[in-house]
Design a protein that fits this description.
CATH topology: Transcription Regulator spoIIAA
CATH superfamily: STAS domain
Helix content: 25-40%
Strand order of the largest sheet: 1-2-3-4-5-6-7
Structural class: alpha/beta
Strand content: 35-45%
Largest sheet: 7 strands, mixed
CATH class: Alpha Beta
Length: 135
């Protein structure tokens, strides 16, 4: 895995690739400490090969912030292992008191609908968050 960190006065941004499957993760944090809000944008496929590392990466990005938006609008495929990853992320962010939400692509929304009928994973449906700024 390659991790590149670019710091500016207003944001922390990390980009990296996970595993042998095409998956790209961008992380952007605004603010500091408990007022920090993080957006993690993912593109590609979430499958058996990279689901555990995907979950660990998102959990690390959420650590110490008060809000997390997980943008999965660019995910083309998500296996059931991706659902397990989302439940692991959910458990950690709830323990940490982090408010969070998944913005799902049609492929992710389909898996959420089948595997999370109770709605335990907070989700929203919008077109895309690419390029959006945190308020």
């Amino acid at each position: 895995m390659t991790v590149t960190s670019i710091r500016s006065r207003s944001a922390d941004r990390r980009r990296f690739s996970i595993g042998s499957t095409a998956l790209r993760v961008d992380s952007r944090t605004r603010g500091r400490g408990r007022t920090a809000h993080t957006t993690v944008s993912v593109s590609g496929d979430i499958d058996t090969v990279n689901a555990a590392e995907f979950a660990a990466t998102v959990r690390d990005a959420a650590c110490g912030c008060s809000g997390l938006v997980l943008d999965l609008t660019e995910v083309d495929f998500m296996a059931v292992d991706g659902m397990s990853a989302l439940h692991a992320i959910n458990a950690q962010v709830l323990r940490g008191g982090v408010e969070w939400c998944v913005v799902a692509s049609p492929a992710v929304a389909r898996v959420l609908g089948l595997c999370d009928p109770e709605g335990l994973i907070p989700s929203a449906r919008i077109a895309s968050l690419r390029g959006a700024e945190i308020a």
